[in-house]
Amino acid sequence: MTGAVQGRASPAEASREVSTRAYQAVVAATRAAFVDAALLAPREGVAVAARAPVDEAAPRRAEQPREAEAPALVVLAAGMGSRYGGLKQIDPVGPSGETLLDYSIFDAVRAGFEKVVFVIRRDIEDDFVDRVGARYEELDGLTVGYAFQELDDLPRGFDLPENREKPWGTGHATLAARQHLGGPFAVVNADDFYGRRAYKMLGEHLRSGHDDYAMVGFVLRETLSAHGTVTRGVCRTSGGFLEQIVELREIARQRQGAIYPGDGDEPGRLTGTETVSMNLWGFTPSIFPHLEAGLVEFLESRIGDPVGEFLLPDLIDRLIAEGAARVRVLEGGGPWFGVTYREDREGVARSIRELIDAGEYPEKLWG
Q: What is this structure's pTM?
């Protein structure tokens, strides 16, 4: 052992231990508040059975998956889209005017999802509902809801800073949908195309009744843009589960692999075969107390940062490190493509055309 006296925690370790205890205390208090507020009470005919006290001395049975209800889809569409400009979530890319959202909903419905909740901003509500949401409200067997990511939707005791204009991040956006959800659900970006197989794998996991969360993994080289750098959550996995997720910024495609800014003069290098997260997650409502607690801790330290974000991958990485959650990695997602830059749109439309010609999608999704 180097750098510390054996038997005594280093200052960094002690700090992490104190932080972990504080976080766990907030989680416990938040879970109790959720129960008191009936946020996890039965909704839309979903029964939640009371739990008997746990006898810690009793032998534990192997976990048995329970039959789950049809999953819901939470679509994060409140992002600013700063690099692309405009409301890219409702920009048509299909031959009959379809958006990337249309293909996500189409794939989700045929994978067994029966509800969609759009998380949007108030200022795009009318345009979004008229141009996008209305078409789904007419689909048989699909329930549509809208949640709003509001800057002032903060836990008790926190006030909105005057200089805050940017949304609070994907963790805050997911929390905004909590009142619409009583069972398993997926979280997706509005401006990504994940492919039919990705939704099929995730839908099967969510219907299995397992308590494990899930993430669909994609191959890094298949998610890079030819028109600029990107940010990706690079994953370390073991035995089919996520061990760590590290956000790397300014990843640039190379002839072989990719590079990103390193710690020194030399760039960091990636092979291109790494598994990455594209923000396609599967959760149960048990994530909400963690989101509440994580948001409180984020605000306590960074509420004054005008561009700071409470991000889902950051929370998930912490839960895994603390042993508070397991995340199954569903490999083989794709094809993935998205519109990070305006120049990406032509390639996305061409890729969709190829999938239509191959029989993966009809010429016109709706009608």
A: 0.80
